[in-house]
Description:
- By secondary structure, the protein is of the alpha/beta class.
- It is 31% helix and 16% strand.
- Strand 13 (397-401) and strand 14 (405-409) form a beta hairpin.
- Helix 4 packs across helix 12.
- The model is unreliable at 1-72 and 78-97 (pLDDT under 50).
Amino acid sequence: MVTSALALWLAIVTSLFGIPTALSQDAKDLDALKETPAEINIYWEDIDNPARQDASSSVEPNAPLHNAPQVTTTPPASGAPVTATQPAEDINNTHQTLTPFLPLTAVANEPPKIALLVPTKTPAYSVAAQTVLAGFTKAAASANAMPSCVVIEHGIGEFFNAYNDAIRQGARVVVGPLVRDDLTELAKTTPPLWTIALTQMEDFHAAMPSSVLFLTLAIESDAKLLAREIALSSRSGIPVILTNESPLMKRFTDAFIDEWTALGKDMRPERIVFENSKLSLLKTRLGELSPSVVVLAVDGDDAALARAQTRAWPTYASSHIYRRAVQFEGYALDALRVAEIPWLIQPSAETFRALGTQPQLPALARLYALGFDAFQVAQQFLGGTPDSFSFWGASGNISFNLENGLSRYGQLGVFEEGRLRALNAQR
């Protein structure tokens, strides 16, 4: 089942980016993607699921993306990681359990580079990795910075070898890992370079080495954005969260409540479990509560049905509420406010012209935007540690300072006539 789903995934990416693969005949209709939410969201929900790795081991990795700017790629060195001399002491001093890194003095005369480490050799992650790679190299080419970049492709268990290869080639900033298993191992070390992780720990609040920053598509950032926007609206009444209690939506709900509490709001949101067999009871309960707003913590087939029950109240949701740019017939989601990446809300904006053609699947567009912005973030650190910076990227509002680290927040869009638009562009 998982192997066929991954084959479907690869086939659709083939049609979008021109990747040659024998799997391209396995998918004819984007509607089939409704059956594979886990594969669509591997970069968000559980990109390091070992079961998916094992089940998909018979699928060959796809070739490099067609028409993507070309960067010299290097396979990781074989054999065990080289044990380095003791890295510089981490200010937290709690992660220095492993020292698998080469000393930076080994390449002191190399010009400084940005290294992207991507798990393209792991079949379960190769689609996500290739899409991030395409966005990263597009950004580097647009900035005429290709000579300062190196891409190192790796497989399962090869992340530290890839990291040391980056050091050998003069890297001063590393972008990666993309997979949570690799991040878990990295958390036990003190990386000697600024390292921009594209995933997060399962425990969102886990302590990490001070040299590791996070630029992710984590659903928690959607929840925080919505909590802040709703708090600023100053509507009277209690917010209601309508949740289908999937693991991902539990994370979203918990993050929303945590942020709402941190904002000093006295009235704790009411949490209601969405069950499509009890819609009449749901409407009665919502009427009794008369909420200030409703937050939909649902995804997949529950989306349109849940939205139909909340039309009497202002309603918000994460970007997981939909899977395709045009998914619902009619106006099923109209007036729904959604936390999304700016590139999907305003694809024709002049700011995003350098990104080129947008993939049809929102999941791929988000990954591409993440790769594009990851290069821009890494470039800020190439000449040393900046005091602070901020910019409006394709994946959101990105900012850094020495006190709070790196953060990314999306933009609020609204469905209008079946299309997602900027909130201030309603007609």
